Amino acid sequence: MALSKATILILALRVLGKLPLRVAQLIGRFLGFIGWALHTGSRKVTEINLNICFPDLSDEERARLGRSSLRHTGQTMMEIPLMWEWPVEKCLGLIREIEGEELLKEATADGKGLILLAPHLGNWELTGLYFSSRYKMAALYSPPHIKEFEDYMIRVRGRLGSELVRGDRRGLARLITLLREGEVAGILPDQSPRGKGNAYAPFFGMEVRTMTLVAKLMQKSGANVLMTYSERLKDGEGFRLVVRQCAPGMDDPDPVVATTALNLSVENCVREAPEQYQWEYKRMRHRPPGEVNPYKPDRIC
Predict the structure, then answer these.
(1) Given a cut of 70, is residue 234 above it in pLDDT?
(2) Where are the beta strands (DSSP E) in the chain?
(3) 256 with 201: CB under 8 angstroms?
(4) For the purposes of burial, counting CB atoms within 10 Å of the CB of 148, is it exposed (0-12), middle (13-18) or buried (19 or more)?
(5) Short-list 168, 165, 166, CA closest to 138
(6) CA pair distance 38, 42, nearest whole angstrom
(7) What is the maximum span of the chain, computed from C-alpha positions, in angstroms?
(8) What are the residues whose beta carbons fall under 8 Å from the beta carbon of 212, sequence distance 6 or more?
(9) In this structure, what is the dihedral angle of CA atoms 71, 77, 79, 80, given to the nearest 10 degrees?
(10) How confident is the model over 72-115, as pLDDT tens digits?
(11) 206 C-beta neighbours (distance < 10 Å), count
């Protein structure tokens, strides 16, 4: 009897989840090196993004940053099975330092809900696991195409009681309810949204489509908001969990003001560890009407 795609994928994750962190990261760095050396699509998108976002760097500096970025992305990929399959205590033991913990205490002292924005920087799976170990938490997610794999993903991500909420109307209503009750919501803020519920705002100087979800959640729930990410330390030593203040104006009723503050907050975090950002994602593909798609320069948005 043939195994389903979901079964094969889950078995692969379980096998990879047996690896030590140093070995997983070594394999990840090698995969990133291959991705750069073979001039893959990931390298091409990375180079386009870095040309846009860091025009002041020399070609050599951008190439060095791009190579490092793909190696870190490879490490992130290889760390996911560990974060999903290792015992929770072992995963949390990888966090060697926490910076900005006083901001968490201030944000939760008034009993209001808290929105934690975790961009695709460092190891975001570990970030989510850490906060679900401390708070009653809900996280927004997009379901995968394979139903059986979705069940597995919900189980491993929710093993500390974290509630995974789909990014549809019902899911958003659930988030508002939880935030009004003083709970915590986790959101990846740097995805390029589809459909309605967005505005165009600058990200590293380029106007791109940006979610208005965070502003709406803040306006309807009164929740506070913070940025967070887990920075990868050298030589398999673990991670440093970082919490940062957001730029002011994220709850502004003007969607352009709010999304500008959101993108600036993400940008500020990315500049702290640019090599650990997921630059191979086509963040700039949705631009204002009439503007050029940088990944397909012959096409107008």
Answers:
(1) yes
(2) 95-99, 114-117, 137-141, 163-166, 184-187, 198-203, 206-211, 224-232, 239-244, 292-293, 296-300
(3) yes
(4) middle
(5) 165
(6) 10
(7) 57
(8) 197, 198, 199, 255, 258, 259
(9) 160
(10) 999 999 999 999 999 999 999 999 999 999 999 999 999 999 99
(11) 17
Strands 184-187 and 137-141: parallel
Which residues have CB under 8 Å from 171's CB, separation 6+?
A: 140, 165
Written as six digits, the tokens of 36 are 């750069």
Return all residues near 288 (Cβ < 8 A) that are at least 6 apart: 200, 207, 301
Least confident of 74-83, 92-101, 192-201, 256-265: 192-201
- The pTM (predicted TM-score) of the whole model is 0.93
Cα-Cα-Cα-Cα torsion 251, 285, 157, 118, nearest 10 degrees, comes to -40
**How far is Cα 284 from Cα 257, in angstroms, rounded to an integer?**
19
Mean pLDDT over each residue of the chain, to the nearest integer: 93
- Residue entry with tokens 């549809």: 168
Contact 165, 171 (CB under 8 A): yes
Neighbouring-strand partners of residue 230: 122, 241
Alpha helices in 86-123 (DSSP H): 88-92, 101-108
pLDDT per residue as tens digits for the range 46-61: 999 999 999 999 999 9
The confidence score (pLDDT) of residue 2 equals 59
The answer on pLDDT for 272 being more than 90 is yes
Q: Are 280 and 46 in contact (CB under 8 A)?
A: yes
Residue 81 is given by DSSP the state H
Cα–Cα distance for residue pair 197/210, rounded to 1 Å: 9
